[in-house]
Amino acid sequence: MKRILGVITLLVFAVLLVACAPKDTEAAAAKMKKAGYIATASVASEVKEDGYVGQVTGTKDSLSEALSSAYTAQLYKTAKQAKAAYEKTQDAEGKSSATLVGKWVFYGNEDALKAFKK
Q1: CB 73, CB 85: distance < 8 Å
Q2: Residue 8: its pLDDT value, please?
Q3: CB 75, CB 103: distance < 8 Å
Q4: pLDDT averaged over consecutive 10-residue blocks of the chain (118 residues)?
Q5: Collapsed DSSP state (helix, strand, coil) of residue 16
Q6: Is the distance from CB of 14 to CB of 100 less than 8 angstroms?
């Protein structure tokens, strides 16, 4: 019974994590703008071979924080393709400056990441 409960808890947690990620570049840009960030969305003219769909880039909407709060979020067609792209950012020790969020690979500071996931 404990094992089944643990599996159910894990599945609910995974769904909640993915549910927090924006569905497309326009939704991500709107979310970041609402959080006080400048956001520019771009979409690839066609889905790339690696699954790349588009990205959102920007900074904090205040001059004093603009340089330290730059971010880029890259959207992939599937979570599997995003994971493969994320794994390419890892060094030999498995460390990366990126964060995997559902079908997104996110580069930026903690505050920007929290706003993106919220």
Answers
A1: no
A2: 53
A3: yes
A4: 53 48 89 93 90 94 72 96 94 90 95 92
A5: helix
A6: no
Distance between CA 87 and CA 36 in Å, rounded?
A: 30
> Is the distance from CB of 39 to CB of 66 less than 8 angstroms?
no
The DSSP string of 81-106 is HHHHHHHHT--TTS--SEEEETTEEE
Q: Strand order in 37-43's β-sheet? A: 37-43, 52-60, 71-76, 104-107, 98-101
DSSP string for residues in 51-86 = -EEEEEEEEESSTTTTTTT-EEEEEESSHHHHHHHH
pLDDT at site 69 = 82
Alpha carbons 73 and 116: distance in angstroms, whole number: 9
Per-residue pLDDT at 66: 60
pTM reported for the whole predicted model: 0.76
